[in-house]
C-alpha cells in the first residue's frame, strides 16, 4: 500500500474538479467535489436545539416550535441546493420558502397529528456547490 | 501547508479504493464510499429538469405521476442494494410535508412527495424535491 500525505487537494486544470475512480469494477469515475456533502447537522430541537454533530454549521437559530434554522459557516453558490432531512419517529421537511438562503437552511418537524413539534435527533444534509 | 494538485485520483492497489485518515487522526475511511453518487433537486409536475436545478450524475427525469419523479443515472450503480436520503419543502399554508426515496435499481431511484398525507406535486421552482444516493457505482 502506498500512502500519499497532503493537507489539501486541488484540481490541476480546474481547481474545483477532481475525478476519482469509484466504480465497483474499478473503471467508472465520479467527481470528488460534487459527491461531498457541503454541510450536515444532527440536532435536538427538544433540547434547546443542541448541536449533536455538525459540519459547516456555525450555529442554530430557534424559529418556533419544531422549526430550526441552521446557519452555514461557508455559504452555498445558489438558493436551490439539495437538502435532505429526516428525524426520529416524526415527519420533517425543509422550509425553502421562508428560511433557505445561500447561508441558511430551515428544518421543520411534525408530529402524528400533523402539527409542528419539537423532537430529538433530526438530521439535515446539504449537497451542491459552495460559493 | 502541502497542496496536491491533480485532475484524477486512482487507488494504487485497487483503482476504486483510496483510504483517508478521518477526523480522529487514526481511523481511516474510504474516500469513494463516502461520496454521494447522485444528487437531484427539481420539481415534480411533469416538467422536471435535470439541469435547471442542482443535479449530479442524473441524465434525465421521468414523471411517473403526481408527486413521483424517477431520476435516471448517467453512470449506473453496481447493484440495487444501495440507499439514499430525500428532502421536501414546506409551504406557507401547508404543514406536514415529507418525502420518501425508494424503488432503487442500478439505473434509477424514485422520489415521493407527500403533503398532508396525500401524494402531491412539488410544482414550484422555488421549492424543489431532493434526493441523494450512496453506494457503489458499476
Write the layout of secondary structure elements.
The complex is a heterodimer of chains A (131) and B (138).
Chain A: E1 8-10, E2 19-21, E3 29-31, H1 32-35, E4 39-44, E5 50-55, E6 57-64, E7 67-72, E8 83-87, E9 91-94, H2 96-99, E10 104-110, E11 121-126
Antiparallel strand pairs in A: 2-3, 4-5, 4-11, 6-7, 7-10, 8-11, 9-10
Chain B: E1 3-5, E2 8-9, E3 19-21, E4 28-30, H1 31-34, E5 38-42, E6 55-56, E7 58-63, E8 69-73, E9 83-87, E10 97-102, E11 108-115, E12 118-119, E13 129-134
Antiparallel strand pairs in B: 3-4, 5-6, 5-13, 7-8, 8-11, 9-13, 10-11, 11-12
Could you estimate the helical fraction of the residues of chain A in percent?
Answer: under 10%
Question: Percent of residues of chain B in helical segments?
Answer: under 10%
According to DSSP, the number of beta strands of chain B is 13
Domain unit count of chain A: 1
Spell the H/E element sequence of chain B. Answer: EEEEHEEEEEEEEE
User: How far from one another are the termini of chain B?
Assistant: 36 Å
Radius of gyration of chain B: 18 Å
Q: Helix and strand string of chain A, N-terminal first?
A: EEEHEEEEEEHEE
Please summarize the sheet with the most strands of chain B.
Answer: 5 strands, antiparallel
Structural class of chain B: mainly beta
Question: Which radius of gyration of chain A do the C-alpha atoms yield?
Answer: 17 Å
Q: Name the average pLDDT of chain B.
A: 87
Oligomer: heterodimer
- Globally, the shape of chain B reads elongated
Q: Alpha-carbon distance between the termini of chain A?
A: 36 Å
How are the strands of the largest sheet of chain A arranged? 5-4-11-8
Fraction of residues in β-strands of chain A: 35-45%
Uncertain residue ranges of chain A = none
Give the overall silhouette of chain A: elongated
Q: What is the percentage of strand-forming residues of chain B? A: 35-45%
Classification by helices and strands of chain A: mainly beta
Amino acid at each position: 500500500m502506498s500512502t500519499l500525505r497532503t493537507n489539501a487537494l486541488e484540481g490541476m486544470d480546474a481547481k474545483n474538479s477532481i475525478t476519482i475512480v469509484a466504480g465497483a469494477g474499478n473503471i467508472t469515475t465520479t467527481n470528488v467535489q460534487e459527491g461531498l456533502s457541503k454541510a450536515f447537522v444532527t440536532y435536538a430541537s427538544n433540547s434547546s436545539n443542541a448541536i449533536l454533530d455538525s459540519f459547516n454549521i456555525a450555529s442554530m437559530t430557534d424559529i418556533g416550535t419544531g422549526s430550526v434554522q441552521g446557519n452555514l459557516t461557508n455559504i452555498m453558490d445558489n438558493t436551490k441546493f439539495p437538502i435532505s432531512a429526516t428525524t426520529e419517529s416524526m415527519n420533517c421537511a425543509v422550509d425553502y420558502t421562508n428560511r433557505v438562503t445561500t447561508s441558511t437552511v430551515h428544518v421543520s418537524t411534525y408530529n402524528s397529528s400533523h402539527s409542528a413539534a419539537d423532537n430529538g435527533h433530526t438530521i439535515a444534509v446539504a449537497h451542491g456547490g459552495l460559493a | 501547508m502541502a497542496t496536491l494538485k491533480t485532475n484524477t485520483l486512482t487507488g494504487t492497489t485497487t483503482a476504486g479504493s483510496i483510504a483517508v485518515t478521518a477526523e480522529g487522526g487514526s481511523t481511516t475511511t474510504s474516500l469513494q464510499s463516502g461520496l454521494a453518487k447522485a444528487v437531484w433537486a427539481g420539481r415534480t409536475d411533469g416538467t422536471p429538469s435535470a439541469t435547471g436545478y442542482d443535479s449530479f450524475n442524473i441524465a434525465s427525469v421521468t414523471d411517473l405521476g403526481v408527486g413521483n419523479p424517477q431520476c435516471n443515472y448517467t453512470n449506473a450503480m453496481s447493484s440495487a442494494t444501495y440507499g439514499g436520503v430525500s428532502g421536501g419543502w414546506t409551504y406557507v399554508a401547508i404543514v406536514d410535508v415529507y418525502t420518501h426515496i425508494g424503488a432503487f435499481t442500478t439505473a434509477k431511484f424514485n422520489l415521493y412527495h407527500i403533503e398532508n398525507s396525500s401524494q402531491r406535486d412539488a410544482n414550484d421552482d422555488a421549492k424543489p424535491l431532493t434526493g441523494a444516493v450512496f453506494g457503489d457505482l458499476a
